[in-house]
User: Which sequence fits this backbone?
């Protein structure tokens, strides 16, 4: 009996037809090899995939698809315009790339080779536009030679690497400078545009190229180079204010640093070091060098008389010592999770009421902030607990601790002794809490140690010009404290000025107290940032 032939339905696809056809192939004796070949072809996987794709396309065709866009021709036109415009840009690029924009340099003198051999002269060709050359020159008093005194970091001379301190300058663009004054030579240099050719006798020992430094200094005073007569080039001086962080780029010069203020986008030139007894006259072409664009100079340190020191003070300065610190080397520091929290020190001028501010912040979050429990010799009151409000000790014990320098500060009030001990601060920090203390400014010297790494906040009330400009019944610190006279305001103002003059260089933040609520919010924000951000601290605090 003959096997029935399978029947295809009307909707059978090409893929199903191919599969059915393959299953019906039966080899016979006469055409066995042909049948095997056909079966292999129809069974090929790639052919099956093609059939499926064909079916999907036919199915999509039966759905009568509509165009996604009706503006294909305009889109093609836009693309064509885009390609043409970019073709023009590429054409311009090719044209520019084939041009030579190097300056046309004048030919070398015919007798140059003989001169080079005779005096070891070096010909230096620099390209500068409207920028200064970035070098100072001076006249050697012994020989009369014109000497390169300094190279300003970032200028054309520095970038070339061909001009060095100590080189003797002979000619500028073929003009001899042997008998010219330094200011005439500087004018000649500044007026030269495009290419500039220098004839130089190299120094016997050429200095190494200036290297980028990672030395940072905190300025402890204000500096205005135009007022410093010892500055060899006032246009290349770096003005700064007390508290500015300076990155010292080079300390090669024994008298002058070259530095830039941290935060300036580009490099400014250099200044203070040891106050020189006598500096040779120098001149330069650095006009306009200090628009915050290059590195500037600064003197490394100063010798100031007691009169000059009015309004400036260095850490640990002795009234009888004419020398005091004018810079403090610093680095960035951020508290690590396993380290003790930094000590927060509040100092305040008259009317600031910093104890109230401290207590309010601690009361809001006693789990994070705490006060160092003070010592006292007064009798304990019934509601007080030893070690909570105070550490109650005898007068003999208090005097012994004071003699052994265990207190950061202490004093007498109504015949009772009070003091804050170092151990009380350590006790708070051992609990992983941030200790907040308010002290007299004189105590800062004792607290500024690597152990405590104090962050000093100077709180001062905003004092109006006169009593008439404010509410007559309100004190600057907030609250009702009776009438404030003009004499009271003057005392507050003078108190803030005095603290700023004597201790301002040790302050990390100034908090102007408008009222208790806003001052508390500002202090809270400072404390929160102190735990998660990095700050500048003296290098000796973190150096291991």
Assistant:
């Amino acid at each position: 009996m003959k096997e029935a032939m399978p029947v295809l339905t009307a909707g059978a696809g090409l893929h199903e037809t191919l599969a059915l056809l393959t299953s019906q192939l039966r080899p016979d004796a006469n055409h066995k090899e042909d049948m095997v070949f056909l079966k292999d072809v129809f069974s090929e996987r790639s052919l099956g995939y093609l059939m499926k794709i064909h079916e999907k396309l036919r199915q999509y065709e039966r759905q009568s698809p509509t165009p996604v866009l009706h503006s294909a021709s305009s889109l093609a036109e836009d693309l064509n315009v885009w390609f043409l415009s970019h073709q023009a840009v590429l054409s311009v690029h090719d044209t520019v790339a084939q041009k030579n924009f190097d300056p046309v340099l004048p030919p070398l003198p015919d007798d140059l080779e003989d001169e080079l051999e005779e005096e070891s002269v070096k010909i230096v060709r620099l390209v500068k536009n409207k920028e200064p050359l970035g070098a100072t020159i001076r006249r050697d008093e012994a020989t009369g030679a014109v000497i390169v005194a300094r190279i300003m970091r970032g200028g054309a001379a520095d970038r070339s690497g061909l001009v060095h301190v100590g080189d003797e300058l002979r000619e500028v663009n073929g003009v001899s400078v042997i008998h010219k004054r330094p200011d005439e030579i500087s004018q000649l240099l500044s007026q030269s545009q495009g290419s500039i050719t220098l004839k130089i006798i190299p120094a016997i020992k050429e200095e190494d190229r200036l290297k980028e430094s990672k030395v940072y200094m905190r300025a402890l005073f204000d500096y205005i180079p135009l007022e410093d007569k010892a500055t060899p080039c006032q246009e290349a001086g770096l003005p700064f204010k007390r508290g500015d962080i300076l990155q010292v780029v080079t300390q090669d010069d024994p008298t002058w640093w070259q530095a830039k203020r941290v935060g300036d986008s580009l490099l400014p030139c250099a200044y203070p070091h040891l106050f020189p007894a006598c500096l040779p006259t120098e001149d330069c072409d650095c006009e306009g060098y200090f628009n915050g664009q290059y590195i500037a100079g600064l003197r490394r340190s100063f010798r100031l008389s007691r009169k000059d020191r009015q309004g400036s003070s260095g850490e640990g300065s002795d009234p009888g010592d004419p020398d005091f610190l004018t810079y403090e080397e610093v680095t960035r520091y951020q508290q690590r999770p396993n380290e003790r929290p930094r000590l927060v020190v509040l100092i305040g001028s008259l009317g600031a009421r910093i104890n109230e501010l401290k207590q309010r912040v601690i009361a809001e979050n006693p789990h994070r902030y705490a006060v160092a429990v003070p010592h006292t010799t007064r009798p304990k009151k019934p509601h007080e607990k030893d070690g909570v409000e105070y550490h109650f000790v005898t007068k003999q014990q208090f005097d012994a601790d004071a003699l052994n320098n265990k207190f950061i500060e202490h004093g007498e009030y109504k015949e009772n002794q009070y003091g804050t001990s170092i151990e009380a601060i350590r006790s708070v920090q051992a609990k992983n809490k941030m200790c907040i203390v308010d002290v007299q400014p004189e105590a800062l010297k004792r607290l500024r140690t690597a152990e405590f790494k104090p962050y000093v906040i100077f709180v001062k009330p905003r004092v109006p010009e006169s009593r008439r400009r404010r509410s007559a019944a309100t004190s600057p610190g907030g609250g009702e404290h009776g009438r404030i006279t003009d004499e009271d305001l003057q005392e507050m103002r003078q108190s803030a000025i005095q603290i700023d003059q004597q201790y301002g260089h040790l302050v990390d933040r100034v908090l102007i107290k408008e009222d208790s609520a806003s001052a508390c919010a500002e202090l809270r924000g400072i404390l929160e940032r102190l735990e998660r951000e990095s700050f500048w601290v003296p290098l000796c605090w973190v150096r291991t």
About this structure: The mean pLDDT is 75.
